[in-house]
């Protein structure tokens, strides 16, 4: 049971105790070498758990910075493989800790040779590739601050980030990206350098810095500390302009040190197998950056996959063969749906469904055993799982490279059913929750005691509180210094009282597990006065193989409705399986059979909510929501105002006669 303690009643928005955690105890291991489970301390108010806290597993860093990591690795294990990079021939070239540190040092000296001073900002606009991670550590070693720019950003978005950050230098991946921003240079007086990765400019920088003494880098590294600014990551901005989140070296170190210790089976497996991760998430987002830093910190071999095209990614997975993957729910949903579609095309849909049911029941039985009340999988369930393993489960694992045993998942809720399925397949999914403002994860599923369908416990060293209105508040060493406000002279604190308001609505159960139920600003209030959280309905429907995106609406309206967009692969599979001739989506949106399938999906989603919260009508759009059209942020969040504006006529049609 969690360590629960009583205390006087306190207003949920007050601070009954300092959010600064006490000095952590020494971390210990059990006889099997696994980390001991540290359960949350919880606080209650009016019978409900309103606060949960897990003590840190490692002491906070008091000196040094991220810039030291490559050099510490080189000193401790110079011959250990820490990075694998794609060659022009398509093979993987393995870099040892010593080789990676040498490349970091050479590029850092090149940046110094070009006149970049400590504290200068350098922007990076590139896909997920080795050079991104190299630039991060080289910039830090030179005392610089990195500023990610998403590679698909518009010229306007990129200009805003460059202007807001006051970037001195910009590194783009392609000449085309640099050329597109060329006309903006005159309106960016701080920008003095533009370098292009594909043009070999990083190699030239490394050559240019050959005359700079190594000691210059050592001096710059030496003045950095945990409180030094490391990066400015601009939030996606579902409304208004993006804001720069000022994350320090200490924010990252607090986050990754506790994550590496907690996720011991991922980063330090007992089997002696070399841990490795293939990173395909955007490094312009904090989740991908956090995973990259964690891999370097733990000396887990890191590879980069720049292309998210299905064939390219599958080829990278097959050749790299990672042991764990950072992922988002959308990817796991697509893997499941693709596997079922393949089984259906081969006439094995019923067999796949039985195998999926066995996997889910097996995963739930393992969960129940870890929580105490359940005996674990029965003998018959173990037999059924063993039967389906070579027929179904092994094929799914093979599609991920064959060695993946762990997935770190974030970005949006995965759902209990899918989490149980993957656990039964033999892939543990550690689901987490967090924001850019808290350097990635604030909660994560504990490996020794998962609770499927939640986003886990507070990351060690983190406090989670539920305010009076249900908003999730966070406190911990990974919470950012503040927002970057150049007009106000630098960084403006975002949580002066020690608690950061996330804008998300959630609840804590009796054992301190967090469930996110919606966004505070996205709560819909119908004309009848009913509060509706759209997220549960949207997440459920988005997991359907025929649905790409879903937007639930109804604010100020007599009832709830929804806009649905179609998934191209799912639609193509449905068409072929139902004998439909090829047709563009705009000719299929009125297909009665298609609407019947989607109506069934909507009816299932409505089972999650009360009658006043249920979707009464829906419209199928002939186009998908895209970032290019302004309907999605780079992190795939819905821009609700833009969607409602662009599809206003369709929305009004949902309420004609209502």
UniProtKB/TrEMBL annotation:
PANTHER family: AMP-BINDING DOMAIN-CONTAINING PROTEIN-RELATED, LONG-CHAIN-FATTY-ACID--COA LIGASE. InterPro entries: AMP-binding_CS, AMP-dep_synth/lig_dom, ANL_N_sf. Pfam families: AMP-binding, AMP-binding_C_3. It comes from Streptomyces echinoruber. GO terms for cellular component: membrane. It comes from the Bacteria. CDD domains: VL_LC_FACS_like (cd05907). This is Long-chain acyl-CoA synthetase. Residues 9-25 have a biased composition (Pro residues).
């Amino acid at each position: 049971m969690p360590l629960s303690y009583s205390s006087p009643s306190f207003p949920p928005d007050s601070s009954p105790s300092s959010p600064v955690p006490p000095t952590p105890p020494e971390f210990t291991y059990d006889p099997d070498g696994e980390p001991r489970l540290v359960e949350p301390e919880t606080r209650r108010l009016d019978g409900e758990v309103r606060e949960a806290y897990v003590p840190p597993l490692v002491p906070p860093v008091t000196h040094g910075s991220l810039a030291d990591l490559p050099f510490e690795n080189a000193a401790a294990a110079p011959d250990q493989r820490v990075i694998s990079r794609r060659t022009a021939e398509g093979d993987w070239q393995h870099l040892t800790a010593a080789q990676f540190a040498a490349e970091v040092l050479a590029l850092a000296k090149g940046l110094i040779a070009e006149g970049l001073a400590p504290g200068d900002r350098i922007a990076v606009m590139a896909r997920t590739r080795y050079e991104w991670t190299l630039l991060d550590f080289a910039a830090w070693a030179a005392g610089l601050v990195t500023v990610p720019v998403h590679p698909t950003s518009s010229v306007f978005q990129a200009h805003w980030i460059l202007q807001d950050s006051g970037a001195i230098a910009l590194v783009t991946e392609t000449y085309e990206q640099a050329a597109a921003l060329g006309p903006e240079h005159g309106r960016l007086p701080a920008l003095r350098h533009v370098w292009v990765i594909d043009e070999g400019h990083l190699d030239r920088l490394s050559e240019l810095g050959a005359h700079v003494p190594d000691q210059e880098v050592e001096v710059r590294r030496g003045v950095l500390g945990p409180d030094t600014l490391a990066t400015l990551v601009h939030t996606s901005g579902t409304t208004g302009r993006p804001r720069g989140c000022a994350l320090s070296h200490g924010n990252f170190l607090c986050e990754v040190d506790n994550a590496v210790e907690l996720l011991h089976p991922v980063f330090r497996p007992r089997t002696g197998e070399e841990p490795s991760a293939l990173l395909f998430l955007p490094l312009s987002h904090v989740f991908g950056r956090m995973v990259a830093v964690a891999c370097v910190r733990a000396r887990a071999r890191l590879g980069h996959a720049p292309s998210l095209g299905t064939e390219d990614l599958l080829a990278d997975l097959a050749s790299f063969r990672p042991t764990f993957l950072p992922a988002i729910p959308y990817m796991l949903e697509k893997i499941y749906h693709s596997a079922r579609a393949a089984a259906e095309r081969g006439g094995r849909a019923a067999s796949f469904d039985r195998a999926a049911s066995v996997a889910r029941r097996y995963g739930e039985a393992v969960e129940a055993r870890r929580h105490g009340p359940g005996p674990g999988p029965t003998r018959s369930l173990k037999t059924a799982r063993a039967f389906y393993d070579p027929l179904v489960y092994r094929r799914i694992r093979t599609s991920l490279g064959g060695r993946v045993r762990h997935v770190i998942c974030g970005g949006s809720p995965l759902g209990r059913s899918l989490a149980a399925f993957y656990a039964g397949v033999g892939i543990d999914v550690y689901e987490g929750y967090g924001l850019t403002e808290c350097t990635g994860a604030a909660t994560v599923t504990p490996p020794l005691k998962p609770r499927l369908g939640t986003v886990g416990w507070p990351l060690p060293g983190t406090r989670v509180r539920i305010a009076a209105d249900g908003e999730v508040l966070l406190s911990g060493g990974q919470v950012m210094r503040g927002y970057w406000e150049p007009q106000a002279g630098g960084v403006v604190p975002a949580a002066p009282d020690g608690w950061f308001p996330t804008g998300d609505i959630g609840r804590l159960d009796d054992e301190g597990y967090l469930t996110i139920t919606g966004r505070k600003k996205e709560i819909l209030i119908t004309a009848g006065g009913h509060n509706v959280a759209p997220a549960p309905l949207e997440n459920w429907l988005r997991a359907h193989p025929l649905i790409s995106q879903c937007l639930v609406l109804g604010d100020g309206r007599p009832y709830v409705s929804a806009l649905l967009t179609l998934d191209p692969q799912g639609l193509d599979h449905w068409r072929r399986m139902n004998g439909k001739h090829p047709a563009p989506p705009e000719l299929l949106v009125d297909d009665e059979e298609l609407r019947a399938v989607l109506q069934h999906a909507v009816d299932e989603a409505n089972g999650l909510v009360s009658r006043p919260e249920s979707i009464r009508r829906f419209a199928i759009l002939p186009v998908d929501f895209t970032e290019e059209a302004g309907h999605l942020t780079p992190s795939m969040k819905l821009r609700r105002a833009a969607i409602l504006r662009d599809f206003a006529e369709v929305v009004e049609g949902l309420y004609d006669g209502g």
